[in-house]
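The records we work with from here on pair a chain with its fold. These numbers are not coordinates but entries in a learned vocabulary of local backbone shapes. To see the layout at work, look at the sequence and tokens printed below:
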Amino acid sequence: MSAMAVSTLDATVANVALPTIARELSIDPAAVVWVVIAYSLMVVVSLLPLSAVAERIGFRRMFGLGIAVFMLSSIACALSTTLTGLVLGRVVQGFGASMLMCLFGGLVRNIYPLRKLGFGISLNAMVVGITSVLGPTIGAFILTVASWPWIFAINVPICLAAYLGIRFLPDVPRNHVRFDWIACMLSVVAFGLAIVGLDAIVKFPWRAALCLPLAAAAGWVLVRRSREQPAPLVPIDLLRIKPVAFAVAASGFSFAAQMASFVSLPFYFQSVMGQNDTQVGLLLGVWSLAVAIMAPLAGVMSDKFPVAILCAIGAGCMALGLGITIALPVGTAFAWMAAAMFLSGVGFGFFQTPNNRAMLAGAPRNRSGAAGGMQATTRVFGQSSGTALVAIAFASSVAHGPVLGVVAAICCALAALSTNIVRHMNPVADLEF
């Protein structure tokens, strides 16, 4: 939980500090966004390779290395005086965060017994929800009482606390299959170019037209190479398990809906509903708060009731909440908008824990590392796809872009709902290892 908190907190806190960093280091605001892009891109391209490495060197060793890399790179970021140094520090920090993120699913799978797995996942979801809510507030407080380098220096004591607990982590059996370096390079190319291409669809279509076909070609070669391997870097073997395949598809749609909502709703609330910055922040905070509140209840229920039904209810509530949000007339009281956002957050929180449980419990224990890496990769890729959908919506219509962005989020939530309806009709989807 300490490692999860610090990796989540770092992303939200760093975003708040971007204007201050640009001003104090005399950096162009358009260039300072690379402080965020460098971190996110490194996480995306390294999650699956590092999850394969973790299965081979052991979860404890990877956790220790990840904490050390994250802590040292945080110190390097705090000491940076140029954009180049800060971006390089963020690249290394993203690598350290990826070393930790690829372990979370597998560690939870091996810490909690199967009958309490949903509860264990819900605790992690609650940590992510709470840190997501508190991150901007903590960042603003740090900038009020100290300079921006403390945004990164605050990670050090949390990392030290997490490092002290390594000896209590489970000793997961290792995978002795030889690491496939060619597959590793293909994975980096496929996911890296896919994310760059999705981000460039609107502003730089020529770049997207170049990156996306190359990403598809690299992905095709990677899948062909991994098809017959016993423990492939890209877990094709896990996608043959129907519970896992359903959970991956539903997760991608769900996180696309979440990110499309978070990108488009601020514009919608400001330009259409006439809310100020503080009110917009509170409305988005209500969503994250609902996720944190709902996670423990969803975790307990996921250990007792069919996952497909719970996930369908969650996806349906998220779509309904977003639909109510854009259906509210201009001039609606703030409380009603907050209630609609709370319903959306309840739906996302109700969906997330049971679906993650299905993904982790459906995979064999000796492939829990790959399942955790796939879970994190699906989340990041879904969020990138949601962002790209909003960019397309804004490019299609300047006046109606925010509404179209929310509609895109609703469509993704309905796609997650449909996936779970099909999953419920498939009796194999309840198998667990």
The two ends are 24 Å apart (CA to CA). Confidence is low (pLDDT under 50) at residues 429-433. Residues 242-271 form the longest helix (30 residues). The CA atoms of residues 177 and 231 lie 7 Å apart.
